[in-house]
Design a protein that fits this description.
206 residues; Ribosomal Protein L25, Chain P; RNA Polymerase Alpha Subunit, Chain A, domain 2; 2 domains; four-stranded mixed sheet
Length: 206
Amino acid sequence: MKQKTLTVVRREQTKKQAARALRRAGKIPAVVYGHNAPQAIAVDEQEFSTKFSRVSENTIIKLKLGEDSHDVLIRDFQENIINGKILHIDFYEIEKGKLLRTRVPLQLEGTAIGVREGGLLEAFVHEIEVECLPKDLPDKFVFDISALELSHSVHVSDLDVPADVKVLNSEDQVVCTIVHKRVEVEEAVVEEEVEEEEEGVESEEE
């Protein structure tokens, strides 16, 4: 995994008014948690948005704080639901050589046979929880669903996982499945109801 770097500064004031002032100045208030005491910091909004098109829990980031540096993961963040701007970030500091737990995105590729035959793809799992050393953390898991037929499913146990990565999800958990289109089922039900009504009318007429 390629590591990304962010240059951050210490944040002396942690009250709401100070946080608002930081945001107006183009900074994102943040906190670094981990094996040391929490540190209040500020991240440059433009640098963050340029380097991170989306926020992910499995990207190892090197925070440069003066002469110090910290390897971290994004544990949580607050976002403005109207304009999509990041309002606050919680970073979690990791230690080299020690196991970490986090989530890795799951990407489904290809067009399933069942979809080409008129079925619908239903995906239930978009991230996989893992435990591994920082150096072994995958960018993402990829599964090719091209051969997936109608009424067939993919389970966590079907994923290709590196030997040094432990998956914490249940092996029996369904990742995705191909189902028949609901509209077809609904039409069949309506047709049955119409037929029953017609039979009832015919019986009354007799």
